[in-house]
Amino acid sequence: MGLMGEARLGIADYVVFAIFILSSLSIGVYHALSGGRQRTTKEYLTADKKLKVVPISLSLLVSFQSAIMILGYPAEMYMRGAQLYIGNIGMLIGTILTTRLWVPLFYKLQITSTFE
Questions:
Q1: Calpha distance 26→20 (Å, rounded)
Q2: Is Transmembrane helix included in the keywords of this UniProt record (predicted)?
């Protein structure tokens, strides 16, 4: 905090920000230059079903997380208490049902999207 109470970014903040930006940029550049362009829609959407568990898991994790959630959860917990975690029970049940019911159905039908 400065003299007047305004928040300022420090060196550590800029270093972390730069690391995230550079890592994201380097991943994009690597995959753009490493060849292997997608030729069909199936290759683009499903990677010909050749992806391993880790990239798929990370993709799903990032899809469920957002900046609003990361910034908002601590504020909500501070303001209203730990009952916010009750919503996570519903999300857990929904995730289990989705992985046990819908994903196998989509896989059997060989569709890549709910819009097909």
A1: 10
A2: yes
